[in-house]
Design brief:
The chain is of the alpha/beta class and 355 residues long. The protein has a single domain, classed as Alpha-Beta Barrel (TIM Barrel). 48% of the residues lie in helices and 13% in strands. It has a seven-stranded parallel sheet with strand order 1-4-5-8-9-10-11. α13 links the parallel β8 and β9. α4 packs parallel to α8, α9 crosses α11 and α10 packs across α11.
Length: 355
């Protein structure tokens, strides 16, 4: 594989010295970019775009071509590829988000689920990873990702997005054996899926625990973190002669950073509800931190964006171990020029913290 020309993202995740704080954005290939919207229109719909490795590569690279400051590419895909490969029948309904044709409601439903083979059942993702790595040609590292078992389980049990997770939590409390069976099968599937991405060329991986913050403290430990721990334990950690860092991101998980830092992951993603300086004080040198600007700041003026970037950099303080990001994904209505102001501010304003 081609040598990396820019490895500051990987270095920061390992708390090694960097010249500036590396930066990327969750959902950086997305609807805020006119070039993305054009490619999606060419594909016909989101699922067709995601399942076409050449087009998935095209949209993955679009933000890097527009914003030269970006320090990492992230695979263009979706967290719901695994349930789809398990036979749940993923589709997207306009204005409603993701939906499944089959819904999990019983232990019998769970026992019937297969564990997908990454190359056979999710080959389009592996092909996309290989294509993106080839086209990146060492420009920046490539991040692979998956949803967490708990987050995937909520979609499978609810049949789609949910505001209150009524069916998932009912199963968790009334039939914990069934929920543990589902989460165990998903943990095995995610481990195989992420290892497949690593073998195909992903140089770091992120686990998106989008709905872990909906759980009580006790339920989070038992039904979310325990299964992310199982995944971390099963991942390939060295590939192509380098460490493959793992990032855990629980949205709403600021209360549990100490427990998350004990998993052996290299980094924790932070949403915008916690102070990054306090988070650093709590986890010490155990992990790097990724985040954590409120995505809504990107609706403000470029001057206001710079002010908020400066505040977060100051809160983290000097030294490596910080990857700048939003606290969640960029939203479709953001002006691309405001994203440019964000990326430029991070590199420009962070240099003194690495002198």
């Amino acid at each position: 594989m081609t040598a990396l020309k820019n490895d500051r993202f990987l270095r920061a995740l390992l708390k090694q010295p960097v010249d500036v704080t590396p930066v990327w954005m969750m959902r950086q290939a997305g609807r805020y970019l006119p070039e993305y919207r054009a490619t999606r229109a060419k594909a016909g719909d989101f699922v067709s775009l995601m399942k076409n490795p050449e087009l998935a590569c095209e949209v993955t690279l679009q933000p890097l071509d527009r914003y030269p400051q970006i320090d990492a590419a992230i695979l263009f895909s979706d967290i719901l590829t695994i349930p789809d490969a398990m036979g749940q029948g993923l589709y997207f309904e306009t204005g409603e988000g993701p939906r499944f044709r089959k819904i999990i409601r019983s232990l019998a439903d769970i026992e019937a689920l297969p564990i997908p083979d990454p190359e056979q059942d999710l080959g389009y993702v592996m092909d996309a990873v290989r294509t993106i790595r080839r086209e990146l040609n060492g420009r920046v590292p490539l991040i692979g990702f998956s949803g967490s078992p708990w987050t995937l389980a909520t979609y499978m049990v609810e049949g789609g997005s949910s505001k209150d997770f009524r069916q998932s939590k009912a199963m968790l409390y009334s039939d914990p054996q069934a929920m543990h069976a589902l989460l165990g099968k998903l943990a095995d599937s995610v481990t195989a899926y992420l290892n497949g991405q690593i073998r195909a060329g992903a140089q770091a991986v992120q686990i998106f625990d989008s709905w872990g913050g909906s759980l009580s403290a006790a339920a989070y430990q038992e039904f979310s973190l325990a299964y992310m721990q199982k995944i971390v334990n099963g991942l390939i950690r060295e590939h192509e002669g380098r460490r493959v860092p793992v990032i855990l991101f629980t949205k709403g998980g600021g209360l549990w950073l100490e427990s998350m830092a004990e998993t052996g992951a290299e980094a924790l993603g932070l949403d915008w509800t916690c102070d990054i300086g306090q988070a650093r004080a709590r986890v010490g040198d155990k992990v790097a931190l990724q985040g954590n600007m409120d995505p809504s700041v990107l609706y403000a003026t470029p001057a206001a964006i710079r002010t908020e970037v400066a505040r977060i950099l100051k809160a983290y303080g000097a030294g490596s171990g910080h990857v700048f990001n939003l606290g969640h994904g960029i939203t479709p209505q953001v002006d691309p020029a405001h994203a440019a102001a964000f990326f430029e501010a991070v590199h420009e304003l962070s240099a003194p913290y690495h002198a």
